[in-house]
Amino acid sequence: GRENPLSCRGMPKRPAAARAPTERALRAAVVPYARRPRDFGLPTALLSLPEDCMLVSGETFRTLTWGGTGHRDTLRLSAPWLTSRVAVAAVCAGDVDELPLEQAAAHQDEWLGVPVAVPKRRPMEGHAYVMTETGERIPEAGELYHRTWIEEGVPPKQVPLAQVEATQADRKAAKAAGRDARKVYGETAPLGIKLRTIKTKGDGDCFFSAICKAFVGHQTCRDPDMWATMRRWERLNRLGPVAPEEAGGSGMSDSSAAGGQAGAPGSASRRAGRRDARRESGGGRDGID
């Protein structure tokens, strides 16, 4: 039969699209390397981990496995440009353990992200590592140990064990001595504390009473002038809206303002008259005076 003119037989095939490399392939292409805590000369990339060192992340200060997933991903993501240069230079240099890396000086942001080879050093006999600021003991090969090496380039401070034990005993004694004071001011209240509702009279005493209960065992007193002023405003608010000159105490005697006692003779009748006038006027101010 006749060949279909629309047939694709005999035409060249379309080239297959290039596939993006997988994460596994990108990780396998990384040449593992590390840096020293401090470079006294030219920055050097360590292509193998020394026997007396640990591979530590410069960001989390945790131990990594040489050539592992965490090591390769850190190099690929934190220092992509330097990692590509190390891969090329390592092929050209051959079988070497160290590789001078002059480009690291111009890319400090990537160089600081490279994992660090932290030396393993035990403290002297009868000594222990401590933090310089607080004197707290640092465990060997811990995150604080790694952090001191990476940030300062030197091992942590060493002090005799007797001094460490004396510092810990003083800290415990100071904490026990201030335990009661911290309880009073609520500094050691647990997160799961149960709140309790205390029913009090609606006379304005609940807040002051709560404060007095919080400072149990301490002498508390009220300011008489402030308390008398609050009492006077409570009485005026119960009477309804009043003029500013009445709020200043013109309708109350001196004895009422000072001690919260009954007003002068006739004050009760005046208040009763205001209430009656307010009822007759429907609650407005036209019936007052």
What does this 3D model show about the protein?
The chain is 41% helix and 8% strand. Residues 249-265 and 283-289 have low confidence and may be disordered. The chain has helices spanning 23-28, 69-78, 80-93, 108-111, 143-152, 161-177, 179-184, 206-214, 224-239, 244-250, 254-259, 267-280, and strands at residues 44-46, 53-56, 98-100, 116-119, 127-130, 157-160. The chain has a two-stranded antiparallel ribbon with strand order 1-3. The chain has 289 residues and is mainly α. It is built from twelve helices and six strands.
Give a quick rundown of the structure.
Helices cover 41% and strands 8% of the residues.
Task: Provide tags for this entry.
8% strand; 289 residues; flat; single chain; two-stranded antiparallel ribbon; 12 helices; mainly alpha
Give a topology summary.
Elements: H1 23-28, E1 44-46, E2 53-56, H2 69-78, H3 80-93, E3 98-100, H4 108-111, E4 116-119, E5 127-130, H5 143-152, E6 157-160, H6 161-177, H7 179-184, H8 206-214, H9 224-239, H10 244-250, H11 254-259, H12 267-280
Antiparallel strand pairs: 1-3, 2-4, 5-6
